[in-house]
Amino acid sequence: IIEFEATYDKMNNKPIAVNIVKLSSTETVGENRVEGTIAVVSRLSSTTHQNGRNYDTSINIPDGRITYVQKGETFYIPYGLNDLQDSNLVLKVGDKISFNVAQDRRNNQFFAR
After folding, report:
1. Of 36, 41, 55, 98, which is least surrounded by CB within 10 A?
2. What is the DSSP letter of 104?
3. Contact between 103 and 109 (Cβ < 8 Å)
4. In this structure, what are the phi and psi dihedrals at residue 84, rounded to the nearest 5 degrees?
5. CB of 66 within 8 A of CB of 112?
6. What's the maximum distance between 2 C-alpha atoms anywhere in the chain?
7. Residues 96, 35: contact at Cβ < 8 Å?
8. pLDDT digit string (tens) for 72-84?
9. pLDDT at 9
10. What is d(CA 113, CA 96) in angstroms, rounded to the nearest whole number?
11. Residue 3 burial (CB < 10 Å; 0-12/13-18/19+)?
């Protein structure tokens, strides 16, 4: 299973996949993007496995936190530096972001992707 974003090739205006990441078989990523706010800036890299950016949430829960509201209820969800699409991006508390919600099926832990 992979995750990717679609964009267009500027040379021939055909659709292409970018930011391709192989997902762990224990990870489920929601299809809809969610709007949220950085509540706590991550300082730790997620544990990287051989198959990509995935981390084992039973061992290492990232130190960053994102807050978002869904159907009137506020949620806090963890993220790590390896979950960012642009590793050079510097986030600050209060920054508005969009992300996908992922779930580790082994322990039902939710996290931002």
Report:
1. 98
2. E
3. yes
4. -75, 140
5. yes
6. 45
7. yes
8. 999 888 888 877 8
9. 78
10. 15
11. middle
Q: Would you tell me how many other CB atoms lie within 10 Å of the CB of residue 59?
A: 7
Q: Which two tokens stand for residue 105?
A: 């099926």
DSSP string, 32-78: EEEEEEEEE---SPPPPBTTBS---TTT---SEEEEEEETTEEEEEE
- 17: tokens are 């996949």
Q: Are 6 and 14 in contact (CB under 8 A)?
A: no
Residue ranges and CATH numbers for the domains of the chain are 28-112 (2.40.50)
| pLDDT for the residue 70 | 85
For 45-65, the pLDDT digits (tens) are: 555 444 455 544 444 557 889
Residue position matching structure tokens 């890299």: 45
Residues 12-47: tens digit of each pLDDT: 887 777 776 665 555 555 556 788 999 999 886 555
